[in-house]
Amino acid sequence: MRDFDIHAELAKLPSCPGVYIMHDARDRILYVGKAKILKRRVSQYFREGSKLSPKIRRMVSQVNWFEYIVVASELESLVLENNLIKENRPPYNTLLKDDKTYPFIKVTVEEPFPRVLLTRRQEKDRSRYFGPFTNGVSVNDTIELLRKIYHIRTCNHTLPSTDANLRPCLYHQIGQCDAPCVGLVTSEAYGEMVAKVLRFLGGDHTDGIAYLTRRMEEASAELEFERAAEFRDLIGRVKALSQVQHANDTKLDERDIIALARDGEHCVVQVFFERNGKLIGREHFHMQETDERTDAEVLSAFLRQFYEGTPYLPREVMTETEPEEAELLEEWLSMKRGLPVHIRVPKIGGKERLIRLAKDNARMVIAKDLEKITREEARSVGAMRDLAEMLGLSDLHRVESFDISNISGFHSVGSMVVFTDGRARKSDYRKFRIQSVDGPDDYASMREVLTRRFTHGLQDRESGTTGSFGIFPDIILMDGGKGQIEVAEEVLAELHLSVPVCGMVKDDRHRTRGLYFRGEEIALSGASHGAAGANAEVAALVTRIQDETHRFAIEFHRNLRSKQQTKSVLDDIPGIGPTRRRALMTYYKSMAELRNATAEEIAKVPGMNKAAASSVYDFLHEEH
């Protein structure tokens, strides 16, 4: 976008709702905003005399070009802005650091033999959903408890089934499933148990406790004291189970109570979850880029990002102060829920006391976590800032690192890991199977990986496709010496790209000792080299990046090698299809164990017969 004339483009802006996106010279997205009138809002950034905060002025000084998307309404602009912020996490937007989603318990009542599952997405289907819960561990414990009490199936089979090869699983053998897969329980009897599950999840534990008490007494009468003790423990778990929320079609009170606390640049938002008139959980969230934002602006940003990421919305959201654009937020929340959602600011009474309680909890979190937050920022954002200074670069946010893994040239693979602001961004990691190189040629393999990565990125930019490949790094860290750096620089030059390339240098003990950049080795420990001396946090960050790059490549290579070895042994056996292959892999713990088995023993594997067993035995004992 070198030919982009900002002032000429400002004159072309339409006077309608939309979303604007600010880019720097490297096409990194700096800021995403929405506007009721695009022309008026975007022009304010570049008009002389505009009252902008120091941080926004810094952002504007980096803007190289901008783009915009026109929408039909202000509500649509809010939705689009949310999506773009979540996808790109621009550095100048107020961001929710904790990207949490909350689990639900799902009962698939539309199935002939329903299951009880944990899910983090509430689909528009006929299943019953209970939640959300604030603790995934407690959800799994509850599901396990329900299976032990009511013998609900765990398999994914479509039932009733016509598969004659189905056999009862381990859960049936240990008394936790009544095996509907093979018709050992009728749909009516199974349905009665599901009805009890639904009542249990609705808060009525009477049936469960009565059933377990009866089983405990029966076991005790038969002098089976260990089994009686198991039922006693289950009764204790049911009684100790924290208040389970009602299904989301409840008509009872449900609200979230939200307050924030601040300490300089640090901001924590506390959320209390109230269901059926009782507090059933709480969570806190750290917010970024809040120091020049008002409480109303921070709350507005939080509500948009928090409720975009969770599938459940209550009837009422209580906040300590009215968020910016409260009416628009209410309209958006109501649209997402499908029923009215109200934002309230209580001033007196019990609800106001809940707000104060939430705020006190937020203050305690800041007091407790401030040292940890400061330390984590030193390890991440601070280390990136120090790395940029060490290398003489103005700014560093996104780092990409590459590695090649092979064994004697076989199954060569490449890995790309991404760190943004000093933290691993695993959603942007990528794997490459080397296609054009025969033999152990790491330089040629690296050339292929880098060419594919940046060619793909240029194509994405040309087509306007949003994705991680279209975002280019501020620096490339190579897990290798001068040779790998030269390969990277040649690829970038051929594609007419300007991205700094730096090598990570290891010592004789395979520890990261320094960086090779622009013809000079810069020490990360020991003696100082010019202006850039030793820096423990930078050294730790570079080591983390290097180790993660190596781990990711090795893991990918190991998986490919394992699949290839499995295929070479089992897939080529005459008469052995996918079903029998899975049966063999399930029955035998290793290929060595299978090779040591006789044909008669192999024939005992479920789904096998004498002919197939002989085929397996003969194949494994022939010379290949």
Model description:
There is one protein chain. 44% of the residues lie in helices and 19% in strands. The chain has 624 residues and is of the alpha+beta class. Among the domains are: 6-93, GIY-YIG endonuclease, CATH 3.40.1440.10; 254-368, Nucleotidyltransferase, domain 5, CATH 3.30.420.10; 398-557, 2-Layer Sandwich (Nucleotidyltransferase, domain 5); 572-620, Orthogonal Bundle (DNA polymerase, domain 1). Strands 13, 14, 15, 16, 17, 18, 19 and 20 form an 8-stranded mixed sheet that branches. A hairpin with an 8-residue loop joins strand 5 (104-107) and strand 6 (116-119). The protein is globular and about 85 Å long. The chain starts with 5 loop residues before the first helix and ends with a helix.
List keywords for this structure.
Nucleotidyltransferase, domain 5, globular, alpha+beta, 20 strands, six-stranded mixed beta sheet, 624 residues, eight-stranded mixed beta sheet, GIY-YIG endonuclease
Quote the beta fraction.
15-25%
- Rg result: 30 Å
Under CATH, the topology of the domain at 398-557 is which? Nucleotidyltransferase, domain 5
Helix % is 40-55%
Number of strands: 20
CATH superfamily membership of the domain at 398-557: UvrC, RNAse H endonuclease domain
Low-confidence stretches: 242-252, 526-534
Separation of the first and last Cα atoms: 59 Å
How many helices? The count is: 19
What's the short story on this structure?
The chain is α+β, with helices and mostly antiparallel strands.
SSE order and pairing:
Elements: H1 6-12, E1 18-23, E2 29-35, H2 38-46, H3 54-62, E3 65-70, H4 74-88, E4 95-96, E5 104-107, E6 116-119, E7 128-130, H5 136-150, H6 170-173, H7 187-201, H8 206-221, H9 225-240, E8 254-263, E9 266-275, E10 278-288, H10 295-309, E11 316-319, H11 326-337, E12 342-344, H12 349-391, E13 398-407, E14 410-420, E15 423-424, E16 430-433, H13 442-463, E17 475-478, H14 482-494, E18 501-506, E19 512-517, E20 520-523, H15 536-571, H16 578-587, H17 591-595, H18 599-602, H19 610-620
Parallel strand pairs: 8-11, 11-12, 13-17, 17-18
Antiparallel strand pairs: 1-2, 1-3, 4-10, 5-6, 5-7, 8-9, 9-10, 13-14, 14-15, 14-16, 18-19, 19-20
Helix pairs in contact: 1-2, 4-11, 8-9, 12-15, 13-14
